[in-house]
Amino acid sequence: MQEPEASEPEATRRVAGVAESARANRGWWDRNADEYQVEHGTFLGDDRFVWGPEGLDEVEAELLGPPEELKGAAVLEIGAGAAQCARWLAAQGARPVALDLSHRQLQHALRIGGSFPLVCADAAALPFADASFDLACSAYGALPFVADPRLVLREVRRVLRPGGRFVFSVTHPIRWAFPDEPGPEGLTVSSSYFDRTPYVEQDEEGRAVYVEHHRTVGDRVRDIVSSGFRLVDLIEPEWPAWNTAEWGGWSPLRGALVPGTAIFVCERD
């Protein structure tokens, strides 16, 4: 007898707290890690450090600092996925640790290989001692998916040494005002930029199976400053001519008109 097909989750906007968001997103990434790596693995590579769908590479950006300063540095990658960024850091002589909420994503990191530690943990409760790292980074990891990003920011500050730098990328906040479509239909404002109601996918019983949280640019800045960081720079990568790929709602068409990624460069005093 054939098993009934699971129904597609319902997409909605509703409140989703810290615990519900963490549970939903751990499950979603565990279920979808294989498909994600198949779909995006070629673009990400095994040992590249890419900040977002535009393809901005740390090789050219040097947001964590000059390559010679990475040698010997203890670096925490948060929301590492298959640890492509950590693998690149290790090749520069750094001492990375790759952390992710999803056990299945870290299994892909094991499959690809590497000599650095992999840690399955919540970014809002980092299992490290104070002042353990020189640098921290997160390329679309953790921060878009947590209900209170200040919990993550304060934890990152705690485990960084004085003068340490944290660089993280997220979906550009302006994108929340537009439909998540790569074509022309994704170029018309459809909702308020100031509506912070989370995007939730839920099952038939109303249980969240995926959650993403919106913060305005001002919210992000206030979160950073109130968590004890100094904002050094904000990068909005332009879509390069060489990149013809679509990634969900990101595309060359939209990238030429609307910023898709925001990268925040922060330092602990």
UniProtKB/TrEMBL annotation:
Looking at the Swiss-Prot or TrEMBL record, what is one Pfam family this protein matches? Methyltransf_11
Q: Which SUPFAM superfamilies match?
A: S-adenosyl-L-methionine-dependent methyltransferases
- Report keywords, A-Z: Methyltransferase, Transferase
Name one process (GO BP) from the record.
methylation
Does Methyltransferase appear among the keywords?
A: yes
**CDD domains in alphabetical order:** AdoMet_MTases
Q: Which InterPro entries match?
A: Methyltransf_11, Methyltransf_Superfamily, SAM-dependent_MTases_sf
Q: Which residues form the Methyltransferase type domain?
A: 76-168
Residue ranges of coiled coil: none
Task: Write one Gene Ontology MF term.
Answer: S-adenosylmethionine-dependent methyltransferase activity
Q: Which domain of life is it from?
A: Bacteria
Q: Extract the ranges annotated as region (Disordered).
A: 1-21
Please identify the protein, giving its name as recorded: SAM-dependent methyltransferase
